[in-house]
Amino acid sequence: MSAGNEAEERIVPMRLQRFLARAGVASRRGSENLMTAGRVTVNGVVVTELGSKVDPLVDEVAVDGKVVRLSDGHVYLMLNKPRGYLTTMTDPYGRACVASIVPADSYPGLFPVGRLDTDTTGLLLFTTNGDLAHHLLHPSTHVWKHYVALVRGVPTAAQLERLRKGVPLDDGMSAPAEVRLLSPDEEAAVPVIPEGMPYGHAVVGLSIHEGKKHQVKRMLAAVGHEVVRLHRDEFGPLVLSGVQPGCWRLLSDDERRALESA
Fold it and tell me: How far apart are CA 113 and CA 127, in angstroms?
């Protein structure tokens, strides 16, 4: 290989938080938090400035004293999150976290892409690929997520149409959603129906591409229907399948390719 080709293939200096994300340490935002907390060193020197750059082929980067290197391959898995678990890898108060039900020890740097509320169940994507996570969560990407909600009362056609056009929330208008009533007999409805369909309730299927906090619950509340149970069964091209509640599986090659192209 000629010297010119070596130069072309050489990884150019990159921002430290991007390096950490690509190495699977954390998401880009999480990597920034590690830096500002003084937990990251470059060549033995603590670096807290977010604009700092490193050369992966020359500089030695460490987090909490452990050397970090770029990985040739990343891990992707889906968890069928049960109720009662925080979407975080650690909790200072000792509450139950999703970290306890995924193979975090086997795959260093594994972290959840986005979050589900403690009482929300369903598909939660984990990866060691910080760059991909950043793109999937960026507002410009418009990755659709499908939720199934058990609500009090039965939404009218007019209320469903309001959701399709977007509803006012305390932090601005929501984007239009795709929404329909689900029959209790439909397979998608099953995860949110506890033991038989409660009287005076309905099951709603709703797809959104935003990521506002508690968005589905707030959107349905805005049209007069409290969410009793909430479940996510789709995230972008991924469909929750072959995973029992509280269990996980690695993504197939086809799922990985679909996710990376999303």
Answer: 7
